[in-house]
């Protein structure tokens, strides 16, 4: 018997069957790729952390090249000597501290609860690096990154990324020329914590002055720049007590 495809009931049944079939396929793919996705997310975090402390595959002054995924786990184990979780006055070691979601921890802190703050201690060429994750809000969506400090609270490197900033404007926070400006800046002003501001009115466009707690803003990206300034200040503020013990040694 021929099926009357002109009936509304046929259209509804056909659509329902297709939804079930497509949904099943997507669920299967999501489930089967879950381990690969998790692995890639882990590699990406390791690459970003290493980049902040200057372990990368950059080949020229303008490139941003991470350690390759086939080498990154080995390099991470080589250069990251210790991982800590700072929870109030309690500090514990944990080899997977870097996987902690900073967004969730900052949300807890904003509600007056005690966050679990990850901190990585790296070593390269006999020098220690204290690498801290950061999370904030740009113009359109989330921004995040890592900052590497020495024991004098001077920035040794950063890595920034974003979810949806404007191409050619706010999205340039992940460009080499912007990130490199932070190297050598101090998060202290004298002995007081000050953070680092992305300043539109900065009088040092070449970033030669390293004791002003400022870097030059990105053209046309004032709100994203303000977001980076706030992200650095608010994220590092959570680590202030620990960092004071480091700088006092």
From TrEMBL:
<dbReference type="InterPro" id="IPR007329">
    <property type="entry name" value="FMN-bd"/>
</dbReference>
<keyword id="KW-0406">Ion transport</keyword>
<keyword id="KW-0812">Transmembrane</keyword>
<dbReference type="Pfam" id="PF04205">
    <property type="entry name" value="FMN_bind"/>
</dbReference>
<comment type="function">
    <text>NQR complex catalyzes the reduction of ubiquinone-1 to ubiquinol by two successive reactions, coupled with the transport of Na(+) ions from the cytoplasm to the periplasm. NqrA to NqrE are probably involved in the second step, the conversion of ubisemiquinone to ubiquinol.</text>
</comment>
<keyword id="KW-0915">Sodium</keyword>
<feature type="transmembrane region" description="Helical">
    <location>
        <begin position="12"/>
        <end position="33"/>
    </location>
</feature>
<feature type="domain" description="FMN-binding">
    <location>
        <begin position="138"/>
        <end position="239"/>
    </location>
</feature>
<comment type="similarity">
    <text>Belongs to the NqrC family.</text>
</comment>
<keyword id="KW-0288">FMN</keyword>
<keyword id="KW-1133">Transmembrane helix</keyword>
<keyword id="KW-0739">Sodium transport</keyword>
<feature type="modified residue" description="FMN phosphoryl threonine">
    <location>
        <position position="222"/>
    </location>
</feature>
<protein>
    <recommendedName>
        <fullName>Na(+)-translocating NADH-quinone reductase subunit C</fullName>
        <ecNumber>7.2.1.1</ecNumber>
    </recommendedName>
</protein>
<keyword id="KW-0472">Membrane</keyword>
<keyword id="KW-0813">Transport</keyword>
<keyword id="KW-0597">Phosphoprotein</keyword>
<keyword id="KW-1003">Cell membrane</keyword>
<keyword id="KW-0830">Ubiquinone</keyword>
<comment type="subunit">
    <text>Composed of six subunits; NqrA, NqrB, NqrC, NqrD, NqrE and NqrF.</text>
</comment>
<dbReference type="InterPro" id="IPR010204">
    <property type="entry name" value="NqrC"/>
</dbReference>
<keyword id="KW-0997">Cell inner membrane</keyword>
<keyword id="KW-1278">Translocase</keyword>
<keyword id="KW-0520">NAD</keyword>
<keyword id="KW-0285">Flavoprotein</keyword>
